Amino acid sequence: MTTLTHTPVTLTRDxxxxxxxxxxxxTAPDWLxxxxxxxxxxxxxxxxxxxxxxxxxxxxxxxxxxxxxxLVAIDEEGGDVTRLEVRGxxxxxxxxxxxxxxxxxxxxxxxxxxxxxxxxxGVTLNWAPSADVNSNPDNPVIGxxxxxxxxxxxxxxxxAWIEGLQSAGVAACTKHFPGHGDTAxxxxxxxxxxxxxxxxxxxxxxxxxxxxxxxxxxxxxxxHILLPALDAERPATLSPAALHGLLRGPVADGGLGFDxxxxxxxxxMRAISAAYGxxxxxxxxxxxxxxxxxxGGGLADEDTVLRLRDxxxxxxxxxxxxxxxxxEAAARVRALGEWTRRHxxxxxxxxxxxxxxxGLSAARRALRVTPGGPAYQPLTRPAHVAALTPVANIAVxxxxxxxVAAELTRLLPGTTTAxxxxxxxxxxxVPALIENMLDRxxxxxxxxxxxxxxxxxxxxxxxxxxxAARPDTVVVEMGVPQAPPAxxxxxxxxxxxxxxxxxxxxxxxxxxxxx
Length: 515
Known about the structure:
globular, 42% helix, 20 helices
């Protein structure tokens, strides 16, 4: 038992302050408003909480009426990961598209416009950008969420993205420290392990994070990954060596010298919850140097908030968590809330000129077009869009539409579409899948849409069989392009956002240059 220097009320308030919970519904529940009055200082929003900009603005105003410095957080990367436009697809291409263009001024402009829209809706903290170097092309969870596989490219676009977003008064939360790009496991499901040495970490994973700290990122999000060279037992989120030693450590000693807010990735993710449980995991994270606990993607209720609050209070009382460490974490949360109160919100957005076409312009510039034979003749008649669809990772979600079908249907009325997946390929066989596809196409030109075809053998086999049967097929790769271009026309969009689909559909129908 330790001797407490603060009152029980102060201790309980600090424990609430370090939580970033979610909730269900499109208005704030009574329990959430009560807890804001008791010390809760952050709220996390997800796609389930948003139906329109107007509704979101009303929701955040409801939260600010209870606490004017509340951190309203969201996971809005743009591209494949969108919460603002979860039901229609993003108006902005994601990081890989911006990295493919490699124009930091464009990246800065995209992030500034995205920040303007978030600020106008009252959002003050964005769990973005992803600064991961996608060095493993088989990575199942990063992929197009990364600016690329080259550390310096990722660093310069991470810098531009942070500067653009924060110029709109929205705090950036650079993720996933110390780098999730060399993993072959999704931390939503299990604990990834990276066996790279510290020398490799320094010249690859850490390069963009050092740039992010230099650019003034207000927050950094930890990753649930195990790096034995850094800590052989604990994932980075729970590791004092990773958070206190490396991220907070002095630059002269090899650290990054970061003094802002450290936020954990979602504590319900199985990389943490399966091994430690969210209560113990949250205590360990704060003790290791984290300042804010992200929870609520799945567990979004008052009981979860109270369980975590009580676990933190008990840990202090039992000597498992230094009281000063909890107080320090809570102070960092409040300090960022005060920054956003002074610099963010609808007032900040009002001073920025809208740039509604910047996202589409970026998507068009990111498109890579490869004709596969004789001069391509643009489609002028209805087509059949065959979407070879992998299972979406949890960060992206399966509720956000992707592909080119919606845009081709708009440009070529009467266009049909169907989805073809791994189960059909493995259960019925690839020949049966292709026969089904040809029957559905009914003689129409086929546009095959794939996503990371290099990671999915069934998809590659189906695409090869389709091209053998219909060599005039147009192929649109909306993931990380790795396989050689194939088809009568091959388009690499570098992401599956709505604007990426629009840019591809324009080329397919001859509505834009590049063919």
